[in-house]
């Protein structure tokens, strides 16, 4: 019996402690949430005074104290947006959208995410963000206007991208055509040079061949002359005879060639003839000289 009473007392004590712990936890949660809101209020005040440093510090404290305060990251995102730090702004707006429990808060978070994308010219993402904002508040005219503007900008961007792609493709095609044209011209030039070189070689060969033919002609002409000379000499040789028929083994004397003795005899005959002619001329001179008639005194 005593054991049963003891167990019951333990159960009652445990329940009481658990109840007290839950109440304490709730009390702690509310206390932290309130402190977070207070820091948020301090951050809003500093931001209104354009004190970005203190505003950022207060918002960060508010975020660290409670994950139920979606206003703190949303307002910190606004601070970054005003400071043109768009990547940090987007991160805080996204955090606010995830922490938000009401559609109003979610609408504001997604709307501002769309504004960040518009600043960065990411129009496709901006369109999706504005659509998400309208799902939480379909009646917001500002979001509708921003969505229409984002869609128009996206259309222009896509057209410009397509135009640039077409232009780049045209440039590539033109470059390929120019390269092909240059390659063809180089091939033609190379073929032309080869043909001219071949022609030059052919002409040079023709000259050599003609020169060889000329040489052959000269050789033929010389052969003809030599042949004719040989024939003439043969004819002359046929009419030549030895002087006494005993000159076997001696070279035959041709009519056009004189022996030394014949030359000597011919010179003596010429000298004798010349002497006779001189004597006759001297004789005529003696006969032809007139004498003077000398008078006797």
Describe this structure in words.
- The model is unreliable at 231-254 and 288-297 (pLDDT under 50).
- With 297 residues, the protein is mainly α.
- The chain has a domain at 14-163: Tetratricopeptide repeat domain (Serine Threonine Protein Phosphatase 5, Tetratricopeptide repeat).
- Helix 1 runs parallel beside helix 3 (71-82), helix 4 (86-99) runs antiparallel to helix 5 and helix 5 runs antiparallel to helix 6 (123-136).
- The protein contains 8 helices and no strands.
- The radius of gyration is 69 Å and the shape is rod-shaped.
- The protein starts with a helix and ends in a 10-residue tail after the last helix.
Estimated share of beta-strand residues: under 5%
What is the molecular shape?
A: rod-shaped
What is the average per-residue confidence, as pLDDT, rounded to a whole number? 77
CATH architecture of the domain at 14-163: Alpha Horseshoe
CATH superfamily caption of the domain at 14-163: Tetratricopeptide repeat domain
How do the SSEs run, as a string of H and E? HHHHHHHH
Decide which structural class fits the backbone: mainly alpha
* Number of alpha- plus pi-helical segments: 8
Annotation keywords:
mainly alpha, 297 residues, 8 helices, rod-shaped, disordered C terminus, Serine Threonine Protein Phosphatase 5, Tetratricopeptide repeat
Summarize the structure.
The chain is an all-alpha fold. The protein has helices at 2-48, 52-65, 71-82, 86-99, 103-119, 123-136, 141-239, 260-287.
